[in-house]
Amino acid sequence: MSLGGLESNLIDYCTAIRSASRVNGSIGWRLMIGATLNGAVAAFASNDAVNKIFEIKGQQSKAVIVAGQTSPRAKVIVQGENLQLSGKFKFGSGLKDASWVLCGFIHPSNGEHRVAIIPKRKARVQGGWNTFGLSETYSLDYQVDPVCVTPEFTFAHDSVSPKRKCAIFCSGIATVMLAGHIGFALGIAECVLQDITTLICNDRRSGKLIDRDDFLIGYGREQAKLKSVIAFAEKAITDVDEAVVSGSLRQEHKDDVRIAAIHTTEVARDIVRFIFDYGGMVATSNDNSLNTAFRDMHVASQHLLVNSAQYKPIVERMIEGLNDRDKP
């Protein structure tokens, strides 16, 4: 079954998110979430589900937006072959305009992390998104009262074997999302480093930025940091693309993308803070791009996928691998 469109790879996907985020953080974020979740459904859902969701009738389907939370938060009761799902979910980015909602859960029979797909009308949107950044992502909370879900409308969260030709998802949903986080962070960092240059010749009581050694030295360091994380991130993502093509994908490849995403987010946050500090009162205006980027980047850095706590399992595997390498 073909859903049309051109197949992309992970590095091109990251670049697209990066370009959108350079313009506006909320736009980049919504593109990242929408592309990943819509793509995951198209890649992993059953033929019956895909036919229903995308309403394939031999012609171009209408716009479909999938939102929701894939983390396993749902309560599950087995009812024969079907499942009864319910629960409260947070951070459903894009939920305001969605037509279908995802609900992550652990299957009681085998402990597998799966994702259910339900019509948005069966979820109660509850608001809850009142942050000082990424406010236009509409990452709303929602509640699902007991609803019957057939097996056809669930898929395995951790699968790396799409049901349709979709190489980008052969590395798994999490890796795709992490590549999006990298693109988002790079776009925001590039935006502020560019935008501050429009202010460097402005007269200030402390002197023009272009004449201040502290700014110029610091700016050079931040550019160097950005170029370094770009090189690392692009290498990690390209390695995954090549491993998928050659059929040699390993956990190490996915770990490199994850650690690159965490590190890129941290560096981008530091760059944004540096630029904001030198932006003066201009950067404090709510309608200024430096202000928006500062707020968006600091909210994005709180996301669980790129939180610094995620270093721990990666480093544990790294140390284990180093120890195994040293064994005779």
Q: What does this entry look like structurally?
A:
The chain has 328 residues and is of the alpha+beta class. It is 47% helix and 16% strand. The protein contains eight helices and eight strands; from the N terminus they run αααββββββββααααα. The strands form two sheets. It has a four-stranded mixed β-sheet, with helices on one face. The chain has a four-stranded antiparallel β-sheet with strand order 2-3-7-6, with no helix packed on it. It is globular, with a radius of gyration of 22 Å. The mean pLDDT is 93.
Number of distinct beta strands = 8
Output the structural class.
Answer: alpha+beta
- Major beta sheet summary: 4 strands, mixed
User: For the record, what is the CATH homologous superfamily label of the largest domain?
Assistant: Butyryl-CoA Dehydrogenase, subunit A, domain 3
CATH topology of the largest domain: Butyryl-CoA Dehydrogenase, subunit A, domain 3
**Strand-and-helix sequence, N→C?**
HHHEEEEEEEEHHHHH
Gyration radius over CA: 22 Å
Provide the helix percentage.
Answer: 40-55%
Share of residues in strands: 15-25%
The average pLDDT is: 93
Low-confidence stretches: none
Return the CATH class of the largest domain: Mainly Alpha
Record the strand order, biggest sheet. Answer: 1-4-5-8
Compute the separation of the termini in Å. Answer: 50 Å
CATH level-two architecture of the largest domain: Up-down Bundle
Shape: globular
> Could you say how many structural domains there are in total?
2
